[in-house]
Amino acid sequence: MALSSRHLLQLEGTSKEDLDLILDTSVGFREILDRPIKKVPPLRGKTVVNLFYENSTRTRISFELAEKRLSADTINFSTSTSSVKKGETLRDTVRNIEAMKIDMVVVRHGSTGVPYYLTQCLDANIINAGDGTHEHPTQGLLDIFTIRQKYNKIKGLRVLLVGDIRHSRVARSNIWGLKTLGASVAVCGPTTLLPYEAEKFGIDVYTNLDEAMEGVDVVNILRIQLERQKAGLFPSQREYSNLFGITRERLKRLNKNFTIMHPGPMNRGIEITNKVADGPASVILEQVTNGQAVRMAVLYLLSNVDAHEDKAIE
Questions:
Q1: E strands, 53-148, where?
Q2: Tens of pLDDT along 198-230?
Q3: pTM for this predicted structure
Q4: What is the pLDDT of residue 237?
Q5: How many CB atoms within 10 Å of residue 110?
Q6: In whole angstroms, what is the distance from residue 91 CA to residue 159 CA?
Q7: Which CATH superfamily is domain 16-136+289-303 in?
Q8: CATH assignment of 137-284, given 3.10.290.10, 3.40.50.1370, 3.40.50.720, 3.40.30.10?
Q9: pLDDT value at residue 312
């Protein structure tokens, strides 16, 4: 079993076959996480570098645990203690790291396109852990896996993404992955937080949350990036909460057996109330656990791709 590409850079353009393979493989690794001994040997002898140029808690820890549970040797790179502080370029940094005979690189960077750039510099497998406002493919995959785990399908479901769609790489990965697998996707948020000409994504676009929630199976609530509020993208946190906050009252508009998701970190009391976040329909903590299984699957599958057949999506 192997993916058609040596790298995982984005879900846009990723085939249904590759998505299904990752999701199906994740099922087996999810079962491993429930065992007393959670370590297996598929990546023994492989060295993986976690190259994080942005702060991260969940994604970084999740990847590190996934690597260790696959028996890989793991190296964590931090810009604050590296030669980047001395002016070293990204290209020189990664070429020097590769000279130490590494096999895979998991990269998070604030600039869109850095993971693709690394595929042009290195022979290692590259996994995008989030680049700029472009994509966050493993987050999209773990969200989709969590939905499939509950409903045993993706096709035919109605999924609503609520919040800061404009700046969200998670939203883009969810949109592309869900659409490829046959879900109906909608987004909702203030006009200032929606992408320009969002309809061109092939999705439904709403600015009224009550209308958007009618007939929805899954609501994936995206973080309001408070650091961007200074740009005046919405008047106040209170107004945002009144218009776009997910409350128990609003849940009545959803289909029966609905699901509440959030990639985290949450701004409780703004985009989601405590009763919704901790309610029986919430699978937020399951998303975190499932993230390890999905990342184990991605690492395992990429390690089986022939290093001489680079079919990365450009």
A1: 73-78, 104-109, 125-131
A2: 888 999 999 999 999 999 999 999 988 766 555
A3: 0.93
A4: 86
A5: 11
A6: 39
A7: Aspartate/ornithine carbamoyltransferase (3.40.50.1370)
A8: 3.40.50.1370
A9: 41
